[in-house]
Amino acid sequence: MYSHHRLICISANPHNHFREFSLRFLLHEAAVGSITLNYTVGNPDIPIRIVGSCNGMVCVAIDEENLILWNPSIRKYKRLPFLHIRSGSGCYMKDGFGFDEFNDDYKVVAIFFSIFQYGPYKVLIFSLKANKWRRIEDFKNGMPLDHSGKYVNGKLHWLVDIDGCMDIVSLDLASERYEKMGVPHNADNGFDDPCLTLGLFSESLCMLFDDHKTCMHLWVMKEYGVKDSWTRLYIIPHFGTPGFYPHMLRLWLLNNGEILLSYGCVIVIYNPKDNIYRYPPIDNIASIHQGDVFVESLVSPSVDDTRLHEE
Description:
By secondary structure, this protein is an all-beta fold. The protein has one helix and 26 strands.
């Protein structure tokens, strides 16, 4: 199991480099060495982040306006046409990456978000098959809070603020239509100004409700699209300072019931049965900015033979 699953992280040292680990070996007690992937597409001092992964491809954003589709397994990448966002003027990009199964096409979505505007927001979508950006219907369903949409079931999902109320809005990559999904009903009861995070639990939508005190409540949508199927599976304790660490966006359920997750700047494995954390034995990496899991594939992001170099 997990023989083709890889954990990819953006490391803090060396700065902005990718580290890649075998998920199968990561779960064993022996120390795990990493592969450093040195990208050659920009200034290494410019912040980078992982937009998402799908079918072995990883979408990477560099300084907001540059997006790259990359398959780490075959060391090939494609640089997408440049986006002009007027950075520094209160304008930012909310984005997402996924696969349009109906049209057999990989797509990247860019929402032009402004802190001075409460919608509607201009939206562009990039088609790998067409190799171009085009405009689609504006994002009119509140203010997207997530930097990157979560890809599930052929759709991208963002947590949004609609007049002070939280909801989830999806964008179908095939029909390019928006839909409201609904958050867990009364899940934040008893919370004092909770912090909500939309994420992925293996291949399902999940939400974390952080009480900023001792724990986080993990809710999972067991049946996609059915609001009543939201179920609280775990109450996960903080092992650091509550509210200090960034919230985890990607959790992976392992064979033995443990959960692999990124917590702040570290990768940890949580055992719900014993209610304890443990640190996997990762060599040569002290801290990370972000992590995700992808499955090895031979899917090529580009017809040109552009490669990233392995150190």
